[in-house]
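Sequence and fold:
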Amino acid sequence: MSDKTKAHLSAKTLWVLFILGLVNAVMYCFPYIRYVFYDQQIAAMGITNTQSGVLMTIYAAANTITLIPGGILADKWSVKKCLVGSIFGSVVIGIIYALTMNFTVACVLWAGLGMSTIFVFWAAITKAVGQVGTVEEQGMCYGIYYAASGIISAILNAVCLQVSRLSDDPSTSFSIAVWAMVAFTAVALILTMIFFKEKSITQTKSSDEEFKIKYVGEALKNPMTWLFSLMVLCAYGLYTSVSYFSPYLTDVLGVPLVHSSFISIVRSNLMNLLCPIGGIIVDKIFKSSTKWYITAFGITIVIYGGVLIMPSSISPVV
């Protein structure tokens, strides 16, 4: 194989990974829209903080219910069809939401988002990245994919935030942001349909490799399953709670709404770029994921304790 051919394949691989990063970014910008547009969403829909939390509870419940059966089906169905169908579903949901802005309707839509962004999508996007490069390139492919997803998420949210400033009316401003997200999702759908080429993989699974319902019972009996689940629950609980810093910054500290949203973009998206540094810390310094978990949770406890005693007069810069 000539050097020119290698370069061409490398460029093509990077382009497909960029598209998959875009897909992952746009698919999760919408269900987690409150992470950047918390106050704007509440004002536009006329809902309470509790109702905003209810939407995320519905989304999380839908995720929990659909994740395992979706993974099983994603192994049986075409990866590309799973991706295209899921993205199309999110586009439709986004359009309905932009046209209604009704809480009752939104409850149904957020359950639908649980289907479109998790059901077969989560397993399919993971398999899609695995099909892009060779076996030797898998680590690099996933690294580029996640980095692209984080950067693109930050850019998309920043663009949506900027176009939302075209109107001073909160409802109109938020609606513009939603339509922008719908447009980006539609672009991701078109690019996936055109550029993602699914590999034909033929493999014969032994009876031991096939999924059996008895494996679920065996996993539930394993103490490590529950310990790991508890760790994920705590970490994700902390992650979801940071969305409340947006109204805290605006209502308590008096930070302008646009600046608060910008901070949310940096916190939720650009911080993903630090993941490789976290990997180095685990591998080179702590040499243990468990030790890093203990240290990271300890640091988080100190930070949350600081928030509890932080006076309202503190500088927004701090």
Observations:
- DSSP finds 14 helices and no strands in the chain.
- The two ends are 55 Å apart (CA to CA).
